[in-house]
Amino acid sequence: MNIDSYKIAIVGSKDQILGFKALGITATIANNGEEARSALFKLNNEIIKLGEGETRKKYAIIFILEDLATQITKEDYKKLTKEALPAIIPIPGIQGTKGYGLTRMKKMVEQAVGSDIFG
């Protein structure tokens, strides 16, 4: 399986994410937490048929703007991240970082490695 065949998506407000389309990234508009939650579940459930009954996830990475990511409940986040792919990665919006993305990354690394290597 070739990583080039996976797609990347981003979820956020129109004015902050449309530029990503020029890079070939699927831009999904969400103006609030509920729209972002719905978009994440939709993108997470998209699959590609490989042939002979085989399928795989369409997206390897889904970026979400931090301000929307903070509105996703812990229960929904657990459901969305129970599988290895897609990786859901919070990124700062135009107003700057709130530290949420780094906190999520620290937790993912701590789970994978078994300790907090960021200190």
Folded structure, characterized:
With 119 residues, the protein is of the alpha/beta class. It has one domain: 3-Layer(aba) Sandwich (Rossmann fold), CATH 3.40.50.10580. 35% of the residues lie in helices and 26% in strands. It has helices spanning 14-17, 33-45, 66-69, 74-80, 100-113, and strands at residues 7-12, 26-29, 47-51, 54-57, 59-65, 87-91. It has a four-stranded parallel sheet. The chain has a two-stranded antiparallel sheet with strand order 3-4. It is globular. The model has no long low-confidence stretch (mean pLDDT 86).
By CATH, the superfamily comes out as ATPase, V1 complex, subunit F
CATH class membership: Alpha Beta
Mean pLDDT: 86
Number of domains: 1
Structural class: alpha/beta
The tally of beta strands, per DSSP, is: 6
Topology (elements, then pairings):
Blueprint: E1 7-12, H1 14-17, E2 26-29, H2 33-45, E3 47-51, E4 54-57, E5 59-65, H3 66-69, H4 74-80, E6 87-91, H5 100-113
Parallel strand pairs: 1-2, 1-5, 5-6
Antiparallel strand pairs: 3-4
